[in-house]
Amino acid sequence: MKFNSPLRRAATVLAGALIGFGGAAVVTAPASAHASTVSGKAVCDTATGTRIVTWTLTNDYPTDATVADLTTTPTAVEKAAAGNLVIPKSAHGRDGELTLTQQVTGDAREATISFTSIWSADGYVDEHNSARVDLSEPCAPVETPCVEAGKATFHHTFGVNGKSSTATVSLDEGVKLCEGEPVTLVSYFTPRPQFSVPQYEFDRDTGTITNEQRSVTLEVSVPDCNTQVDLFFGSDKDIISEITENGPRYGDKKLGSKSGLGARSKGPHGWYNGGQQGCQTPAVEPLSQCDGTIALNLSNNGEISRYAVDFTVTAGDFRKTVTIDAGKGETVTVPAGAGTVTVSAEGMDDVTYDWERSEDCEWPTVIVENDCETVAITVENPKGVTPAIAKITYGDKTETMTVAAGKSEQVAFKLGRATYATIDLPELGVEPIKATLEGLECENGGGGGGKADEPTLPVTGPVAGGIAGGAALLLLAGGALFLISRRRKITFTA
Fold this sequence. Notes:
Blueprint (H helix, E strand, L loop, with lengths): L5 H28 L2 E10 L4 E10 L5 E9 L11 E3 L8 E9 L5 E10 L4 E11 L19 E8 L2 E8 L9 E9 L9 E11 L5 E7 L5 E7 L8 E2 L21 E2 L4 E4 L8 E6 L5 E7 L8 E7 L2 E7 L3 E7 L6 E5 L2 E6 L11 E6 L3 E7 L7 E7 L2 E7 L4 E7 L5 E5 L8 E4 L36 E4 L2 E5 L11
Parallel strand pairs: 8-15
Antiparallel strand pairs: 1-2, 2-5, 3-4, 3-6, 6-7, 8-9, 9-12, 10-11, 10-13, 11-14, 13-16, 17-18, 18-21, 19-20, 19-22, 22-23, 24-25, 24-32, 25-28, 26-27, 26-29, 29-30, 31-32
């Protein structure tokens, strides 16, 4: 039986509609389950004035989504260079998240992001992902307050190497000075390799640390003798040119001190004491004088001479100590015949010296006289020379005499058959001289015409370094005048 009532027709239409709606729901449900979102937030880094934008990308589907076509303005995000970016899958009822960071500097008014999400599990693509963050609010670094000089902190290096010293002083990171900080490196001459006074400035170098020039390097020369080097907070106006016993000091202004201004800088001790020799230049120049004395020219005027030197002179029983100031000199005379001279001084090897006759000293004169009865020989010694010992031989007789400076001595022999006399001056370094007696025909034969024994005269001087001499035999009225040397006058000079 068939029912065609209106009620049956309405039921049929309603059933068809429900089936249609159900089919549509089955088809569209997967599309609504694939979704990714993005949101951004910006904060200001007040230390640098940089805006940090954080983008959060989400995935509500239970499989991972790959990020493609990522674009950000005005700068790239930090993780973009790492390769493929993936938004994790949702799990346990929570969406998966990927966080990206973008740093924006300058005056940008906004930051933007856009990308495409791809679910490789089923090939679904979501191209509609973008967001914008407003950057119109100002972002500037908070200005670091400056600090007074006494509260600033530093670090430094310091060292001495050979003939120079170098130091580098730097302002600590994050410290801003209210005004520049001067720092100085200075070197000194010193009496000892340990701390001692007086000290005299040798070299200096000064620099000023500022917020723009946060580090300075200083270098000074170091003397080639005992020295002190100081690195201190202060300008060249604070340099102590001469450090004395009761004078000012740098004290705890030296960098690396345990307290005070110098303690603001961390690093090694900013001071040095050392050296290998004294800052004096002792020197001796010994000069033999014709009278037998020795003139010692003592000096202390070298390039590094800054302190007095005590010279000690000894010779036999003679002893004398002389203090020579820097840049000065003095002469000490050692008496004739005192013996070997020794001069000692700090910073100098001992100097020893023996008197030596100079070739410029005047020589004695010998006069030989023959009157056919007596042979008389006179030796005259010039003034200003050493005493002369003369050993005179005639025939088989010998006489020795000492002739003082400026004096003359004579010895006489009875005329015999010998036709010459020998005059030996042993301390003068010349060879003995033979003087032939000629000019008179004496009955006993002495002085008569024989020529066999011509006098042997030194022409170029003895091998031992004697002086060239000459002689002449002058026959005058029964006598002979023999000169063994030309006269000279010499003055020792330094």
